[in-house]
Specification:
CATH topology of one domain in chain B: Amidase signature (AS) enzymes
Distance between the termini of chain B: 34 Å
Structural class of chain B: alpha/beta
Radius of gyration of chain B: 21 Å
Number of strands of chain B: 11
Oligomer: heterodimer
Distance between the termini of chain A: 40 Å
Largest sheet of chain B: 11 strands, mixed
Strand content of chain B: 5-15%
CATH superfamily of one domain in chain B: Amidase signature (AS) domain
Helix content of chain B: 25-40%
CATH architecture of one domain in chain B: Alpha-Beta Complex
Order of helices and strands of chain B: HHEHEHEHEHEEHEHEHHHHEHHEEH
Strand order of the largest sheet of chain A: 1-2
Shape of chain A: flat
CATH class of one domain in chain B: Alpha Beta
Largest sheet of chain A: 2 strands, antiparallel
Order of helices and strands of chain A: HHHEE
Number of helices of chain B: 15
Chain lengths: 96, 485
């Protein structure tokens, strides 16, 4: 079970604005999904190692050599608000 | 000369190689066919004049002679200068500054970009109804879903709007729509194909693969796609390369039906086609048996923790700063929250929330940590099965294509579409879906395609393709969509 307050907390962590209606619906839907997911608790996992990754690769390295990056102008073309060769964003603190 | 759109991609390549057909003629014929899309399969198309294909699809720096039929590409692959949305409104208008390695490999091999195909937003879905650009319709019955998330690619190939296509499979997103549309779809081994420039959903699961008319085309397309890429440190390629399949019988090969995967949710018609196909395996000299796979039934649970958890991290990049859309707000956090609220659809929000919760302080061990251990058990199950068997076989999807809207109100019922397809990516192993006949849905309705899934050990692509080819010849599936709805 996950309640409305938990949903609100998680939404803040995820930087996701949810309307009041969405909060209630999300609490209901996530609870249903988590109920199902918890069926896996029936499996005995004592002593089982977690799998992060299925391919046994370690430390895939390349020589650390300088090379050109993409042209700055091309990359900035995709940005919603480029300015002075940078990504412009609103202030992290609301102006008072 | 034959109409190029009647040819398989392998036959077209042969005709081009023999000088009976030019690559330009082949492209033009397919561009015209793609232009007749009434299924919302495409989000972008190159034009017959080669304006799109000449400049963007072939990219000036990789210009190659057109040796192959053009390819429909799921809109999750970045294509330089060509709109790439991953089915999301948050990327509306985005034209990436680079091309995905998989697409570049195809371009270099002379298989140009035909168009970009519709998909569930960020590949999250099993019906294509989660696209921010409207659902794709199933060519067999326009009132039904094509499956997802690679629904546009599957519908385009099935409807004759593309000779072949690529898609991505995280929990079944190539195999399930291939099954629902009556075509071949293959998820290769994790690491077989580069994922550079493939927009990330769940990084420990995502893999690129072919959707084609037949098994030979799947092998040919995979042979062009696979390989180690210095830009993707998880890519390893397939050591022996991919050969065109040729096997005519299945003698000496052992096929396991997993007794741990319940058949209760499988439609009667699907079950009947599955059983007929098992008889065809023994008819071709293959041996049948049962493998326990006791943990595989928990695949859906583990998958719906791991995939959303990884997605919640991967989708943090859509914040209105470097690309995509932005909602204006006076303060930075408010801008992030409003941008993401406006740009993401309901299923993507649900998965971000689920994943963030599963990774959050106090819940990590109970959900993500546990799911990773269940994943180990599922991989161990397959290892045990492959000690005694060459392949594990299942129906690809428990049902034939379902009606539009039938499962949109119940996320769990949608997730259960992936019951037979999630265990394989959790184990990182390859699997193919081939059409094995038509069946009516439970409760009646038009006859619709049924898929048969064959999975094998990591990097057994050639063996799977060979077995699938032999079975394909025995099944002789030659039904084509006739317009319903």
């Amino acid at each position: 079970m996950i309640d409305r307050d938990q949903v609100l907390h998680v939404a803040r962590l995820a930087r996701l604005q949810l309307s009041d209606a969405e909060l209630d619906e999300m609490a209901r839907e996530l609870s249903g999904i988590l109920d199902h997911v918890e069926r896996m608790n029936r499996l005995d996992i004592e002593g089982v190692e977690p799998t992060d990754h299925v391919v046994e690769l370690e430390n895939v390295l390349r020589p650390d050599e300088p090379r050109p990056s993409w042209p700055k102008a091309e990359v900035l073309e995709s940005a919603p608000d480029p300015a002075e060769g940078a990504f412009r964003v609103p202030s992290p603190q609301a102006e008072s | 000369m034959a109409d190029p759109t009647e040819l398989t991609a392998a036959a077209a390549a042969e005709a081009i190689g023999a000088g009976e057909l030019s690559g330009e003629e082949c492209f033009a014929a397919w561009a015209e066919a793609a232009g007749g899309d009434e299924l919302n399969a495409y989000l972008w198309r190159g034009d017959a004049e080669g304006n799109g294909a000449g400049q963007s699809g072939r990219e000036a720096e990789h210009l190659a002679a057109l040796m192959h039929a053009p390819v429909a590409v799921k809109d999750i692959f970045c294509t330089k200068g060509v709109p790439t949305t991953a089915g999301s409104r948050i990327l509306e208008g985005y034209a990436p500054p680079y091309t995905a390695t998989a697409v570049r490999h195809l371009t270099v091999a002379g298989a140009p970009l035909l168009g970009k195909t519709n998909m569930d937003e960020f590949a999250m879905g099993s019906s294509n109804e989660n696209s921010g650009y409207g659902p794709v319709l199933n060519p067999w019955d326009r009132g039904r879903v094509p499956g997802g998330s690679s629904g546009g690619s599957a519908a385009a190939v099935a409807a004759g709007l593309a000779p072949w296509a690529i898609g991505t499979d995280t929990g079944g997103s190539i195999r399930q729509p291939a099954s629902l549309c009556g075509i071949v779809g293959m998820k290769p081994t994790y690491g077989a194909v580069s994922r550079y420039g493939m927009i990330a959903f769940a990084s420990s699961l995502d893999q690129c693969g072919p959707l084609t008319r037949d098994v030979t085309d799947a092998a040919l397309l995979l042979s062009l796609l696979q390989g180690r890429d210095p830009c993707d440190s998880t890519s390893v390629g397939v050591a022996e390369g991919i050969a065109l399949p040729h096997r005519e019988d299945l003698s000496g090969l052992r096929f396991a039906v997993p007794s741990g995967l319940a058949m209760d949710g499988v439609e009667a018609g699907v079950k009947a086609r599955f059983e007929v196909t098992l008889e065809k395996i023994t008819g071709l000299g293959g041996e049948l048996g049962e493998a326990p796979l006791p943990s595989a039934e928990h695949g859906i649970s583990a998958y719906y923790v791991i995939a959303p958890a990884e997605a919640s991290a991967n989708l943090a990049r859509y914040d209105g700063v470097r690309f995509g859309s932005r909602e204006d707000a006076p303060e930075l956090d408010a801008m992030y929250e409003a941008t993401r609220a406006a740009g993401f659809g309901p299923e993507v929000k649900r998965r971000i929330m689920l994943g963030t919760y599963a990774l959050s302080s106090g819940y990590y061990d109970a959900y993500y940590g546990r799911a990773q251990r269940v994943r180990t058990k599922i991989a161990d199950d397959f290892r045990a099965a492959f000690a005694d068997f060459d392949f594990v076989v299942t129906p690809t999807s428990p049902t034939v294509a379902f009606e539009l809207g039938a499962r949109t109100d119940d996320p769990l019922s949608m997730y259960m579409s992936d019951y037979f397809t999630v265990p394989m990516p959790l184990a990182g192993i390859p699997a193919i879906s081939i059409p094995c006949g038509l069946a009516e849905p439970d409760g009646g309705g038009p006859e619709l395609p049924v898929g048969f899934q064959i999975a094998g050990p990591a990097f057994s692509e050639n063996a799977i393709l060979d077995a699938a080819y032999a079975l394909e010849q025995a099944i002789g599936f030659d039904a084509r969509p006739t317009r319903v709805g």
